[in-house]
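Bench log, entry 3. Co-assembly request; chain sequences pasted below exactly as received.
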Amino acid sequence: EAQVTQNPRYLITVTGKKLTVTCSQNMNHEYMSWYRQDPGLGLRQIYYSMNVEVTDKGDVPEGYKVSRKEKRNFPLILESPSPNQTSLYFCASSLWGRGADTQYFGPGTRLTVL
Amino acid sequence: TQLLEQSPQFLSIQEGENLTVYCNSSSVFSSLQWYRQEPGEGPVLLVTVVTGGEVKKLKRLTFQFGDARKDSSLHITAAQPGDTGLYLCAGRSGSNYKLTFGKGTLLTVNP
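Structure output for the full assembly:
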């Protein structure tokens, strides 16, 4: 089944404790992206990757890191999480990331930073 | 930063009623997409429009892209409880890799 998977689905952590949210897709897509979704603010793009080893900042990249060493994986790294990073995070992928591409979303990761 | 304004933000209607959701911007988009998101899940694509003035129909849902490619609308005929969800519009401009989302319209259809 074609899908985007994220792990973990739920995470509660404390300020300053480094964490990684994994994202994997099995559709051989070139483009992958991370979003955060907050009430009243909608979906905002954190980082995106057009290809292996090629990444760029979205609208809200501060406090996050990403890497794209393999086509199928695009982990999101919070080196020193803070409470304002408490949010619902979505990973997404699409074939090229341009034009009328369909973007496929993962199920989401709900992160709480205490 | 390009902005997409969605209205209304919340909409609660009775089963069988019609409704329209709007997505507006001052920027031109090369393509505009509508997604639907249910609680606990990621957004799922409903439709993509790319040509100014384009109209697409998906059963009871009608999507329109403005002539100037700055706005779009989603019309639902005879809404059903199964249409309940968060409707998001998203736009991409030119060769830009970034996809900009509106804040969404939360639709509740009561039986």
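The longest strand of chain B covers residues 85-92. The mean pLDDT of chain B is 93.
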